[in-house]
Structure to design on (701 residues):
């Protein structure tokens, strides 16, 4: 996997909000090759969306500051690049899809014009060529009667159709990297299936790398080649989809999987993760999951490094793998 | 099955979608002629996608809105004709949990006042008895009695949903209806609330009616499931059986669209294309025929009625007997021993964590 230069190499990304004692996103590193799909999975407030916004250079004008790290994308460091450099990359080499298409589309512009605008902005082509490309893209995302849709406004479309328009717009300039932040969360399950199917096929056709941000492990298993599990601003476990699902190591990953109701088999009582995520003002120095972790002990007061267990499977836990750490069931009662 | 505690007969609700100055108003038939029998003590789930009428049905069942036609029978009495004191008495026995714990709790009331309000309204107990009851209810949903003096904004989403549950349980209801009670919550918090709902149901012998779009939660929590499409129930049956072998093509399409969180599992399939038709002018015949991969001529003209195709299973589909539909079976691979052991260790350590007296106050709810 490492023979060639990765398309995106994020290293040590940290983001801090003014007044917080510790970074909201802390030392996040990952790489992504062309054609790969990385899913960043985690619950509300884990920093998965902030990571995406930082890569897109969209944190300017917010109280959030990038504190450190680099994100090399085709010889450009996205974290230190000027706004004009980023502006020429965004919507061209790197595109982004957001959760709620209604708030990301301009309600006053016909969808054909919105897509054409993205093309003309970066390609400088004529109005007609932009419109032709818009039509081509609408057909590509399988919008029925695409030609007549060109002149419709976003409110005339259903949620699923709007998300297709967003995807058409994002892919109009053949980006090398597509970042999708919860692209199907607002959609019904049958519509979600259509969009996931579309994104997988388009990824295959265009060869674009994808970063998909989601809270849904089902979507992860469906889409990902690689997975990064985030908790409270840190990557706690990362690896291939097989490594994460077939050999989960971090207690948070175990807890997350145990919390999920099964779709088949018997309905046992769910094994939960106790408590809630620490607040951003109150992040511990050590392992950020320790307060909710059934295996936590004094060792967890120091921040666990993300270590490579084998073949790229990285875990940030002092006790991993749990079965070798001498932690027996019920150890806590005797401790 | 025990005697039904709640029944619907021909339940219909129409809304005016658009009333132009001249000409006819356009009408949405949100719920269309639904018959339902809910047994005492069961967990009954209603599933369907946006706009299928599931929330309207829940509100009709609890008489939060009035039916256009048909009736709801609670414990042998038609509740659609109740008013005044009789309706208030019904509210004691039938309570509602809302989806959004941020908008359903009055931000200017303390948690104690919120949970105690139903007791006050129904004049149950003396003020000191009510305070004790509030403390007990808070403990039951995993909060602490001293939380009674705080305000909703001081709590996380999961904690607020617990407050909503405590409030719903205050009057000692027999039926609790939850409209997407865990949909707004993160997975780990959702699991906590699902467990609380199940515990309380057992403890108080509640009948639970859960509206949801998350099929995994439904599969876990429900005894029986009704699947809705465009205002009608298209399939009804035992949850485990219905998930393993659906009888209606729409149920099959729903199940095939769920992404399964495991490697090597089947990928999502798009058995149906496009969006649901406009409910203002639903298609003739079977309402699903425009998207149904199996539709035949009969389906385009003749409306199928719900009929029993097996013990306890009803389906509204002309072709039910002829189709062999795919459900969700055996999605879980057997884990390698070391990984299974790891999950067992997590589960045991987690159990030990809540058992030890230190940790109950430690991290359960801060």
């Amino acid at each position: 996997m490492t023979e060639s230069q990765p398309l995106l190499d994020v290293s040590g990304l940290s983001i801090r909000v003014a007044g917080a004692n510790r970074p909201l996103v802390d030392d996040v590193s990952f790489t992504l090759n062309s054609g790969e799909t990385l899913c960043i999975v985690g619950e509300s407030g884990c920093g998965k969306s902030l990571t995406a916004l930082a890569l897109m250079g969209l944190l300017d004008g917010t109280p959030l500051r990038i504190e450190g790290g680099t994100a090399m994308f085709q010889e450009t460091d996205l974290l230190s690049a000027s706004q004009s450099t980023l502006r020429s990359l965004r919507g061209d080499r790197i595109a982004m899809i957001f959760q709620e298409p209604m708030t990301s589309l301009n309600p006053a512009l016909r969808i054909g014009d919105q897509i054409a605008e993205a093309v003309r902005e970066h390609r400088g082509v004529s109005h007609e060529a932009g419109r032709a490309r818009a039509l081509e893209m609408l057909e590509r995302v399988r919008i029925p009667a695409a030609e007549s849709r060109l002149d419709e406004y976003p409110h005339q479309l259903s949620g699923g159709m709007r998300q297709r328009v967003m995807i058409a717009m994002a892919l109009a300039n053949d980006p090398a990297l597509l970042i999708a932040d919860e692209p199907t969360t607002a959609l019904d399950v049958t519509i979600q299936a259509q969009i996931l199917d579309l994104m997988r096929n388009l990824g295959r056709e265009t060869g674009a790398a994808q970063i998909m941000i989601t809270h849904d492990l089902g979507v992860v298993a469906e889409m990902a080649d690689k997975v990064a599990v985030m908790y409270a601003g840190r990557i706690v476990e990362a690896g291939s989809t097989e490594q994460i699902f077939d050999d989960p190591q971090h207690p948070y990953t175990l807890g997350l999987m145990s919390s999920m109701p099964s779709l088949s088999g018997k309905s046992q009582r769910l094994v939960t993760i106790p408590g809630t995520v620490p607040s951003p003002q109150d992040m511990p120095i050590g392992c950020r999951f320790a307060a909710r972790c059934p295996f936590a002990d004094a060792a967890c007061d120091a921040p666990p490094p993300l270590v490579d267990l084998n073949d790229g499977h990285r875990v940030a836990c002092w006790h991993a793998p749990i079965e070798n750490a001498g932690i027996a069931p019920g150890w806590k009662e005797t401790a | 099955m025990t005697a039904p505690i709640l029944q619907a007969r021909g339940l219909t609700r129409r809304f005016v979608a658009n009333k132009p100055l001249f000409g006819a108003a356009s009408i949405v038939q949100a719920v269309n002629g639904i018959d339902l029998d809910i047994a005492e003590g069961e967990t009954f789930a209603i599933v369907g996608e946006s706009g299928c009428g599931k929330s309207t049905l829940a509100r009709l069942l609890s008489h939060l809105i009035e039916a256009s036609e048909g009736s709801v029978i609670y414990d042998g009495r038609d509740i659609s004709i109740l008013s005044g004191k009789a309706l208030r008495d019904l509210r004691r026995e039938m309570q509602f949990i809302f989806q959004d714990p941020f908008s359903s709790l009055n931000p200017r009331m303390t948690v104690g006042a919120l949970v105690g309000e139903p007791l006050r309204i129904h004049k149950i107990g003396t003020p000191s008895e009510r305070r004790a009851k509030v403390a007990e209810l808070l403990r039951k949903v995993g909060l602490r009695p001293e939380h009674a003096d705080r305000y909703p904004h001081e709590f996380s989403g999961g904690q607020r949903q617990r407050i909503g549950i405590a409030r719903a349980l205050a009057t000692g209801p027999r039926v609790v209806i939850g409209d997407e009670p865990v949909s707004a919550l993160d997975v780990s918090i959702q699991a906590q609330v699902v467990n609380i709902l199940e515990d309380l149901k057992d403890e108080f012998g509640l009948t639970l009616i859960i509206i949801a779009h998350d099929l995994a939660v439904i599969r876990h929590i429900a005894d029986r499931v009704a699947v809705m499409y465009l205002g009608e129930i298209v399939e009804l049956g035992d949850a485990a059986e219905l998930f393993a072998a659906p009888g209606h093509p729409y149920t099959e399409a729903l199940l095939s669209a769920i992404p399964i969180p495991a490697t090597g599992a089947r990928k999502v399939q798009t058995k149906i294309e496009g969006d649901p038709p406009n409910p203002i002018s639903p298609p003739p015949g079977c309402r699903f025929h425009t998207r149904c991969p199996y539709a035949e001529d009969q389906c385009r003209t003749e409306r199928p009625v719900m009929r029993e195709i097996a013990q306890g299973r009803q389906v509204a589909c002309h072709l039910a007997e002829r189709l062999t539909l795919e459900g969700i079976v055996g999605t879980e691979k057997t884990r390698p021993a070391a990984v299974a052991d790891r999950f067992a260790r997590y589960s045991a350590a987690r159990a030990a964590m809540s058992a030890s007296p230190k940790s109950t106050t430690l991290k359960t709810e801060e």
